[in-house]
From TrEMBL:
Compositionally biased tracts (Gly residues): 201-214
Pfam families, per the entry: ALOG_dom
Domain of life: Eukaryota
Organism: Acorus calamus
BP GO annotations: mRNA transcription; response to light stimulus
Family indicated by similarity: Belongs to the plant homeotic and developmental regulators ALOG protein family.
GO cellular component, one term: nucleus
Low complexity biased stretches: 1-10
Name of the featured protein: ALOG domain-containing protein
Region (Disordered): 1-49, 162-214
Positions with biased composition (Pro residues): 24-37
Protein location: Nucleus
Domain ALOG: 44-171
Keyword annotations from UniProtKB, A to Z: Developmental protein, DNA-binding, Nucleus, Transcription, Transcription regulation
Length: 214
């Protein structure tokens, strides 16, 4: 029996390898940058802040006697807030009104419209920031004056009574209200009552459900 020795002598050549390919495969292009998320407008807050600031500067300009920003005090800021009330859209009942303390009066009344406390509070926050962004010193910021804080607190308490809306929920601890829409709708043209988030119902932490029906 002759063993076929030839079988070992001729090994098949290795298959042509593609390693020597002169053209490197094209690199995949880098992924395109994600679509730019910067919105065309700066942001609602920023543009609102700019509008508020311009409104205030205009107010100073028209002030009699003329008033400069450097001489502006907390009292002037309060004056400005009162001036804005004429553009308000939130019904605030007088003490003599039958609907004093009613959140949802069944009929119209002659009580004045004012700026809702939530709008004023947000406005002061924006103006306070704008003042410092425009070179004002924090220690002389009239929007941070104590008198302004006190005024806002009085407005809040007065409107809470007049409108029957507790801005401050009871002081007991309760989970944060999930969805309170920001009151800033646009300089105070928020629909009346929008600032208040009438979340009453007391269903928050009521602790019901503990005792099941027997
Ligand atoms: Zn009224």
């Amino acid at each position: 029996m002759s063993t076929s020795a030839a079988s070992t002598s001729s090994q098949p050549p290795p298959p042509p390898s593609a390693a020597e390919d002169p053209d490197p495969p094209p690199q995949p292009p880098p992924p395109p940058p994600p679509p730019s998320t910067s919105s065309p407008s700066p942001s609602r807050y920023e543009s609102q802040k700019r509008r508020d600031w311009n409104t205030f500067l205009q107010y100073l300009k028209n002030h009699k006697p003329p008033l400069t920003l450097a001489r502006c005090s907390g009292a002037h800021v309060i004056e400005f807030l009162k001036y804005l009330d004429q553009f308000g859209k939130t019904k605030v009942h007088n003490q003599g009104c039958n609907y004093f303390g009613h959140p949802n009066p069944p009929a119209p009344c002659a009580c004045p419209l004012k700026q809702a406390w939530g709008s004023l509070d947000a406005l002061i926050g924006r103006l306070r920031a704008a003042y410092e962004e425009n070179g004002g010193r924090p220690e002389s910021n009239p929007f941070g004056a104590r008198a302004v804080r006190i005024y806002l607190r009085e407005v809040r308490e007065g409107q809470a009574k007049a409108r029957g809306i507790p801005y401050e929920k009871k002081k007991r601890k309760r989970p944060p209200v999930p969805a309170a829409p920001p009151p800033a709708e646009g300089g105070g043209d928020g629909a009346s009552g929008s600032g208040a988030a009438v979340a009453g119902e007391g269903s928050g932490s009521g602790g019901g459900g503990g005792a099941g029906p027997s």
